[in-house]
Amino acid sequence: MIDLHSHILPGLDDGARTQDESLAMARDWVASGVTTVACTPHSEPHIPKSSLAMAVDRLQGALDAADIRLRLVLGIEVFLEPDMAVLIEREFAFTLGGTRYMLVELPFEVWPPHTEQTLFALQLRGITPILAHPERYRAVQARPERVAPLVERGVLMQVTGYSLTERVAREFQKAAEALLRHGLVHLIASDSHRPGHPKDLPQARAVAAKIVGEAGARALVEDNPAAILADADPADIIAPAAQSSRRWPFG
Amino acid sequence: MADPRSAPDLITLTHPRSAAAEAYRTLRTSLDFSSLDQAIHSLVVTSAAPDEGKSTTLANLAVTLAQAGRRTICVDADLRRPSLHRLFGLPNTSGLTTMMLDDAALASPPLQAGPSPNLRILTSGPLPPNPAELLAARRVDDVLERLRADSDIVLFDAPPLIAVADAAVLAARVDGVILVVQAEKSRREHVQRAKTMLDRVNARLIGAVLTNARLDGSVSYYGSEGDGS
């Protein structure tokens, strides 16, 4: 599996606090069957891309020295703001591993009115946005189908593993399952902040398989993230459709 | 990029001697004659309702025009359900919307080579949240002017007329409109409503194209109905 959302880099945000924690997280990923992890710290206007790249190199060196077989990719979780052009020019916002795909997030409580326009502006620059954890936004919890027009216009959706495993909140789980049933999810990632979190991914994959089938679940954690890191055409990244079953009669 | 073998809807390329390809050549000829008093350099191809074959018709007409040596540009102005990139097997990273909003793209349009030497395609580009607003902007005239400067004819694929305002807005700014009507599917009142909408914006309806007609006695009956509405 490939995990495209993590806070494994130590001491940069609310994720791993020390390198020891980073290494413990890395072991969890390997034990969960993950081969590649994107390091996506929250964007901070005082930390330049070059510092993040150095942090990734340093941690990769530590992983290699400890014989932990995990490949790290440089990325960032960009907080969506109306004027992304400036952030991109100054490299406070950039894509995953140099591809066309950018991980973006919104505030949890309110859906900013500029969201649709800003995502479109990114696409005009040739960037395909990946919206992080749509199920955590109150507006999506109230009406999961509100992301459907975004998906039609080519924005990718990344659900977080723990939302499906009911470790955090019932609302997250309900929204995440609804998004999967409507075929509105392209990726599942762990959004790990601490040791233990990476283990959500295999569990989440099993939950997703009940809704979108085994092949669909594989697309969410293997095929689609691999295609993204290979900078494949966005048309090739398909949200798996729900399987019809007794449990989801209107899937 | 554009491999005609992977484009089964482009019958003018895959089966140039078929009856259907001949029908497209006849359509091309009718275009020449319908433009005696005013030359046609830009056209909107649309339909009344969705899924009546407008994009396939436009693509084949474009191939036919290009085969006759006309420098042709196809523009996907269906910013809701674009399909020309799929029809021609092209990527859709940039296109019309890029030209609408980026000055560099207006100066140097992101045209892609089509399956014939004289045919180039402007795909839709990223889809905007406000398509009708975008197509109503003055900038459309700049885009049109830029594309015309580089071609003999520009064909716009526009969304169905009665579904959204986009096609009518665009129709008012080009030299003519072709309405695609699908035999035994298009509803008469829809086609009539589409005609009324075009009249309201003073668009010039050049003609109607009947698609999916059966090759038997009923054709001429429905054909004349479709033409007259």
Give a brief outline of the structure.
The complex is a heterodimer of chains A (about 250) and B (about 230). Chain A is α/β, with parallel strands linked by helices.
Supply the number of helical segments of chain B.
11
Q: How much helix is in the residues of chain B?
A: 40-55%
> Which strand order spans the largest sheet of chain B, edge to edge or round the barrel?
3-4-2-5-1-6-7
SS content category of chain A: alpha/beta
Give the overall shape of chain B, derived from the CA principal axes.
globular
The sequence of SSEs of chain A as H and E is EHEHEEHEHEHHEHHEH
What global shape of chain A is seen?
globular
Helical stretch tally of chain A: 9
Mean pLDDT of chain A: 94
The residue ranges of chain B in which pLDDT falls below 50 over 5 or more consecutive positions are: 217-229
End-to-end CA span of chain B: 39 Å
How big a fraction of the residues of chain A is strand? 5-15%
**Beta strands of chain A, count:** 8
Largest sheet of chain B: 7 strands, mixed
- Estimated helix fraction of chain A: 40-55%
In whole angstroms, the N-to-C terminal distance of chain A is: 26 Å
Strand content of chain B: 15-25%
| Mean pLDDT, all residues of chain B | 86
Biggest sheet: strand arrangement of chain A:
4-5-6-7-8
SSE order of chain B, one letter for each helix or strand? HHEHEHHHEEHHEHEHEH
